Fold this sequence. Notes:
Keywords: Cell membrane, Lipoprotein, Membrane, Palmitate, Signal. The chain is an alpha/beta fold.
Amino acid sequence: xxxxxxLAVLLTVTLLAAxxxxxxxxxxxxxxxxxxxAQESVSEASTDEGDKTKAAESDVELTFSAWAGAxxxxxxxxxxxxxxxxxxxxxxGIFIPDDYETKISTMIASGTAPDVGYLVAPTAHDWxxxxxxxxxxxxxxxxxxxxKEDLLDAAYSYYDDEAIDALLLSLQTYAVFYNKDLFEKAGxxxxxxxxxxxxxxxxxxxxxxxxxxxxxxxxxxDFDAGNIQQYGVYINPKGPTIVEPLLVRNTSxxxxxxxxxxxxxxxxxxxDFLQKLADLINVEHASxxxxxxxxxxxxxxxxxxxxxxxxxxSQYMLSNFxxxxxxxxxxxxLPSNGNNTILTSSGCKVIxxxxxxxxEAWELMKWLSDxxxxxxxxxxGLWMPIKSDWYTDESKVEQWAGEGKSHPSGYKxxxxxxxxxxxxxxxxxxxxxxxxxxxxxxxxxxxVWTGEQTVQDALDKVMxxxxxxxxxxxxx
Length: 476
């Protein structure tokens, strides 16, 4: 399964010791070193005529690391075998489903880093600054077969206004998934895939779909909030990647302001919206508390069995929903008060600085970015492409997003078209110290979601600590 969960930046003591001498220089000096090394490597690799032919005749073997589960692993192994067949470059896959970054950092410290591998965006930025991964820009510029517009703008992870430290694995964005049968049973009109509802309309719908054990809805005077049998919607407020897309569409900020100079949750609009999210649980009673949700089945099963009528989650959940034969799934856009921008995010692909074969590693990066080489990851509903023509060429769109169980009616309106037309990368890819700040803020909000504290009071207690860490955004 696609790795969407947050991994902490885990540079082990061994790694810190190994890079101690090199870590004393500034991140800017490291960037220049990375860029020069990549240019020299590309220059050396390009001196032979017919680079691919030369590679095919050589004993080059790359290593590729991923956190893939069983299904993704099988598809990736097939893609790696296809790469070897096409280029003659051997690739050894290293699949690490648990404790991924700790194990990769240990490999780096021992001088056995992969050539190409997965990383989450905050780690990619940190490890680029420490000289552990390469700037991809020189490799792109030296590749006459590659044009930057071949990939969506959102495919590139920028360290600053020049250096690109990673390509995204795929694209993910958020929407509302709902059980059509529960809407019909309650006599509630379904939302439209191509018409965005306001936050107030969304909340009103959730209340109509919330029922106690006596069949009273959350709008009824006799509603028993202590004995709820069906919740109108499930939103995990403890998940930073779920909260921000809602925040962006309903306020003027995300986790930063528009120019990236201020922390977004200091904005009164953001505080007000987070309080509305808490009120959805504790005042409207239309969404379960975090404690209640922990005692219920997973979101996909709860949607199928009628514990939830709607779920706000990432598009990769389609691969889970598709396995539930009895679920009559509907799709709707996130509610918005006028801003229809959607946020995208994903894990990243990087080239580690220890590679002896940067040009061959770049060829593997391109191969793994082509949906044609791992189509099942896309057609199953797990991933969205980063290649532009897989959004514009109807024959390619049909291969991965044709209407069916994994991509039900409304998919193009809710997911595909907005990603192509009006998307931007989430703060996970842009904000400096993203993990560290969230590790301060979101635990502080725990009492907000249980109704014990207001958002303003919770944030006031931790904002001085956040202010010490917040340092703007990457890519500027």
